Here is the input.
Amino acid sequence: MRYISTRGQAPALNFEDVLLAGLATDGGLYVPENLPRFTQEEIASWAGLPYHELAFRVMRPFVTGSIPDADFKKILEETYGVFSHNAVAPLRQLNGNEWVLELFHGPTLAFKDFALQLLGRLLDYVLEKRGERVVIVGATSGDTGSAAIEGCKHCENVDIFILHPHNRVSEVQRRQMTTIFGENIHNIAIEGNFDDCQEMVKASFADQSFLKGTRLVAVNSINWARIMAQIVYYFHAALQLGGPARSVSFSVPTGNFGDIFAGYLARNMGLPINQLIVATNRNDILHRFMSGNQYVKDTLHATLSPSMDIMVSSNFERLLFDLHGRNGAAIAGLMDTFKQGGGFSVEQERWTEARKLFDSLAVDDAQTCETIAEVFEQTGELLDPHTAIGVKAARECRRSLDIPMVILGTAHPVKFPDAVEKAGVGKALELPAHLSDLFERDERCTVLPNDLKAVQAFVSKHGNRGKPL
Here is the structure.
């Protein structure tokens, strides 16, 4: 399997090199040169497989030539063996044909665990084989950071620096990052918003001279391995509901477009998906594109669903690449237009093509709380604010009541007590046993100004297990 850049000017790489590269040298994102496609008979034969075995079958084509089958199977068994539910990603029924796919049974109670528990193990495997050491600099709007730290904390050949917006993540999210200590773990609170953090990560990839020869690796969803891992649970959910003999639709809470792009890929790989709904909050750049062909920056607002407080959706470039016939030069031009002017539209026929599969809705905080309260009253199920946005969007945008609708349950509600409290459901939230003492644990975090040079100087000083790079 070879991977190419969405902007067409970077060399094609194998899986191992893509894993370590993150962002392409031309500023683009890596995608498979050719997507594997499975027959309906092949997909049907996977019904009833344990999650890690299904993951092997779905992901194997992406790593062929880089990781032997036996090693990859072992990595996957270890990855999903740490999840607290035997089904790994169980389905919970809300009504007759509406389901929540619970993706929060991993160590950090969020869907990011599916990819980042795997990414940490893949990095350890590849780096040990190569005899290399790397630095991770990642940005988080809440959940990626803790999942990345949890997935990489035991990696012998990795130093990890996670940037989060100061005072803009929930207390549980922050503490899940700042209470894990290790010589290779560094939390940085940036006096800015998530987009500022993400921009620093991208700028650091573009010029890595501050690392003095050490390689920079991405844990954000610009890293192909994260997208790859998320494809699996679309197959998993569909197989539980009669797929591939019947189509399934999905509503996906998304800010950076990575999770829903994985669903788009699952469909292109042969899974019958009828509809994909982009569910977002007040920071609605994706909704404005899907509903009106306007991909334009706006003011970033803090909301009750902070993991989606994102204005620039990095992975959207991967979809644009396909919509433009995989023309790298066209994407480079679009991205330059966006950088210079803050927005763009695409040709009508390309937008119409996207609308055949995608619908969207932007949900504000009041509607989010109403949905949390409504679902709790109807079913006794308590939703986190991101999942509630997915439910609201599913109910507003659903094309067919005959087709099962799966809402991706992206996080455990205990991570967002403010939203639950404002919804007025009056249910006490208890942390799972492994996090029961979270609020008593010591924290370690460094607050830095919204300044790229200051961040890079900190990384250079504290990398290599505390020895300057």
Notes: The chain has a mean pLDDT of 94. Residues 169 and 388 are 18 Å apart (CA to CA). The longest strand covers residues 158-165. The radius of gyration is 21 Å.
